Structure prediction request, 337 residues.
Amino acid sequence: MPPIALDAAVLFVALLFILGAAELFTNGVEWLGHHLGLSEGVVGSVLAAVGTALPETLIPIVAVCAFGDKSHDVGIGAIAGAPFMLTTLTFSLCGLAVWVFSRSGRRSPEININRVVISRDLSFFIGCYGIGLLSGLLSDFQYLRWLTAAGLLLAYGFYLKATFAHEGESGEAPEHLHLDWLLKSGRALWVVVAQVVLGLAGILAGSFLFVHYTENLASALNVPALILSLVIAPIATELPEKVNSVLWARNGKDTLAMGNISGALVFQSCFPVAFGVAFTHWKLGPAVYVSGIAAIVAASTVLYLIKQNKLRSVHLMFGGLVYAATMGFIIWDHLTP
Prediction:
């Protein structure tokens, strides 16, 4: 097998491994929320969102900690790719689900969400991610970058406080716990915690392989590792998990559907960005800035429409065009001498 084909094959296997481990982790986290009696808003915006965002978050951490300076671009691409994809392509799929299932009579065409929850999520994201992008101007000032990173982590602490303080109905129990289905071990709290830990370990192992073979493949294809990770990492690790949002939208559970996305946005704009600001060179090129601006504009538009009570499925679907146009520009900029 040619080296480039072997690199691509191992990268594909690593992504499958990450997804399998992420399924274990996410399912365990949902059951943990059920055990703790948490509200639907907390489960959607915090537990489910963090669970599905974790694979994407660990890729830059593994890149820097295990591979050093040479992998900083892979980490930065993964950090920037998730918010861009979530605000455009993923919101678009959610809107498409509402449109399709409303036309078939499965649900109402109106988007019925907890406006306080989703608006809070998007406001936090816009502010935190905007700070993260601006901190690219501080690449030569390490102490200021550390202070910025600390501020982003504190911001997520305030977000958690606000989210947990918001009252809501308890989330429904997931259909089954994977570890119970495999081992017939019951659904006790210790089994749930064991599944969460097992999933986390699998994500770490898969991320190690992903970073290594992304670099190999980028070198073989003569494509910058940053651009390759900007595209591959979020689509492979985030998008499949956001199928949950499509299923919730199909069933008319719009707060869970959009909260799963908006909560992941807050997490991605705080933890991964804080790590990137503090521990990578954080020298942001055109691809990162263009995708970042697109993400902030898309999120700001959705936030405005929510506050005006005018959000419709077609507005969310427009994000798919924004994603395609932005990626087209990034590819064109790379190919232009």
